[in-house]
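Pipeline run #58 for the internal structure catalog. This entry was flagged by the ingest filter as a single-chain record with no existing model, so it goes straight to prediction. Upstream metadata was stripped on purpose; only the residue string is passed forward. Reviewer on rotation: M.T. Logging verbosity set to normal.
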Amino acid sequence: MIYNRPSNFDGDINFTLGAFFEDSERTFSAPIQLVTPVVYQIFGAFLPPPLAGDIQPFDGGGLYDGAYLNGHQIWDNDVESFSVFAGIDWQLTEDLELSGGLRYTDEERSASGGNVFENAGFFNFSPSGVTYNPSTDSDNVSPEVTLSYHFNSDVMGFVSYKTGFQAGGISNPGTVPNLSALPVEVQNSVLAFDETEVEGIEVGLKGRFMDGRMRAELGAFFYELEDLQVGIFNSATVSVTLQNAAVAHNWGLEANILYYVNERLQLRFAGQYNKLEYDEWEDASCHSIDNAIPAALLPTTGPGCHVTTDPLTGASVKIQDLSGVRYGGPSLQLNAGLTYERPLTEGWGLGFSWDTIYHSEGERTLNQPGTEIPSRTVTHLALSVYQEEGPWQANLMCSNCFNEIYVTRIGNKPLQKIIPGVAGDMIADLATPRLLTLSITYSL
C-alpha cells in the first residue's frame, strides 16, 4: 500500500508527504537433481516417498512422478516493511531552487525452511527434517538535498547530496548446505545478510545549446557503500548466498549528447565510466580454485587466500583480503548512433537508424583468473517504412547485426572438478547472436 500527497501552492514552497506499507509471504519450493539415476543407483538411490503436509510433489501422479531427486528444499519467507517520507521544493530566487527529502524505513524479514528430502547424504546437503529460522531487522533514515541553478532559460546546473538504503535479507540458496551442527547465530550469519547503506554526491549540467539544435547532459558522481551485498556462488555445493563487503565506492562520469544536423538527420552520443572498488573487505570468500587448496598449504596471513579462525565458531576458515581490488562489469561504455528520416512517396516516410555500443573489459569475480568479461563492440540497425499521417508502419530490425559473439557473465561450472591452483571448467552466459525481426503494426 502506498500513500502519496503532493502540495500545489502558489507560493515559493511546496512539499510531498507519503507512506508505504507491505506485508508479504512467499514460498520457495525447489526439487533438485544434480546426478542422473544411472550414477545414483551405484549409491543405492531411490525415489522419495510422498511428503506429509500441504505440498506433495512426489504423490505418484504429479509433476515429479518417476523423477530421481538429490534434494528438495522448501522455504516460507515473510516480509513486513514500513516507511514514511517527506520532500520539499523551495524556490529561493528566480534562478535558484533547493529541494530535499527524508525517508524512514523499517523492515523485518524472517524465513523458515530447509530440506524436506535429501538423498543418501551424497552431497552433504542439510539433512531432511532440519529447519533453519534466520531473520533480519533493518531500519534506516535516508536524507537527500539538491541545489539547482538556472544560468539562463536553456542551461541548468545542480549539485546533490544523496543517501540510500537496501534492506538486509535472507538467502534461499539453490541447495541448502549442512549447517545443523552450528550454533543458531552462526546459521543466521550464513543465511542472512545485513543492509547496505549508500551516500554520495552528484554534480551535473543540463541544457540546450546551438539555438536548440543540441541537447546535452553531463554529470559526475561519487558514492560510498557500507556493507555492500555481494552474491557468492559455491560451485562445489551449487549454492548462492550473499555476503557483505565492508566498504566499497563507485565514482564515475556520464555524458549524453543529441545533435540535430537538420530536420532529417539526428546524431547521438552517450558515454559512461564507472570505477567500482572494494575499500575494505578483509574477510572475503576465496574463489573456488583457492578453496580447493588444503588449509595446511595456505599461509595464515597475506592478501591472497589464507587460513584464519572464525570468531563465532572457532573453526579454521579460508578467506582473502580484497581491499583495494576493483569489481563489477565493464567500466567504460560508449554509444554512438544516428537516425535519418526522409519522405519516400506521397504520404509515406522512410527511417533508418544505426547504433554502435562498446563495452570495455570487466573485472574478476573474487579475484579469480578467467572470470573477467572480455570487451565487445555490438551494432544494431533498423529500417522503417511508415505512413506520415496514417496507422501503418513496418519495421525491420537487426540486433547484433555483425554477429559479435560475446558473453555477459563468466563463472565456475557447478560440481566442477577443482584442481588446486589450476583453473577448472568454466561456464558463461552467451549473448544473443544476430537477430532479424520484422514487425508490421496498425494503430487504431
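catalog note: Residues 43-66 have pLDDT under 50 and may be disordered.
catalog note: The two ends are 35 Å apart (CA to CA).
status: ready for reviewer M.T.
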